[in-house]
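pasting for ref
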Amino acid sequence: MRRTATSAGLFAALVVAIAVLPKFLTDFRAQQFAYVAVYLVALIGLNVLTGYTGQMSLGHGAFMAVGGYTTAILMTDHGIKDLWTIPAAAVVAGAAGFLFGLPALRLTGLYLALATFAIAVATPAVIKKFEGFTGGGSGKNLFGVKELTGGIAPVHVLGWKLNFNNWLYYLCWTVALVLYVVAWLLLRGRTGRAFRAVRDSETAALSSGVSLARYKTLAFGVSAAYAGVAGSLFAIATTYVNPDTFPVQLSIFLLVGVVVGGLGSLTGLIAGAIFIEFLPLWAQDISKSPGAPGVVYGVILIGVIFLLPTGAAGLLRRVASLFRGR
């Protein structure tokens, strides 16, 4: 009980910090931290699949693409407001993840990772193939359309006048925090225990009455739904989508973010999201020569994994244990 109260207090402090942070940021920085929230949503979903059920995925960027294109198509072709496309993106991407989870039941380990990676590789080609529906290589432009909230005129919320970047910041972080709570409640209950049982030992889970097929496909569906929301927010933030918006590297970066944040824990995922958004920029600032930023990125990543093998969540647990010991 005391631990739950402490967690609730820390979460409340985080909410307050996020609410006041834009007052100290430029518009450009506010947009960058909005992307951090987008990546956080995607990392929560991927951690449900990989960290809690042990199913390796290298195709999470493809489900983000499904969500992003769902939003773009509904806005440009059907005149639906951007906010209403977010739950639609979750449903479409979640259904796609659930359907993929059915044949994936026969695959485990590296075979499952390669199958999901194949989806990430094939997605840009599929998008280009259906040019009449997706816009092909040209993509879909959302900039200036009336369905984009704050794109033409400022947004008025509770007496505040927000420009597009600040509106985007609060939208992304509101969605991210709500979905964080939803994931915490899901993983704290019976479903979360079933997920962890599947991860730790499928044989033991079966003997305890846990349906592997049900919970594995459920994890895929939930994970893909979160990715769909992240892709929807990403499309709204960039105001443009094309096949290059969701490259193969995105899936790899998301897996890196989960590892940096801490597998099997929601606590450190914000650190993983910050890592994804800012490390490439820092690497470019450190070294200006061609190819060097990739080397710097790799060296820093190896150092982080070496120093924090359990991710940011493990570091936070060690710090908390030190305070409890005192």
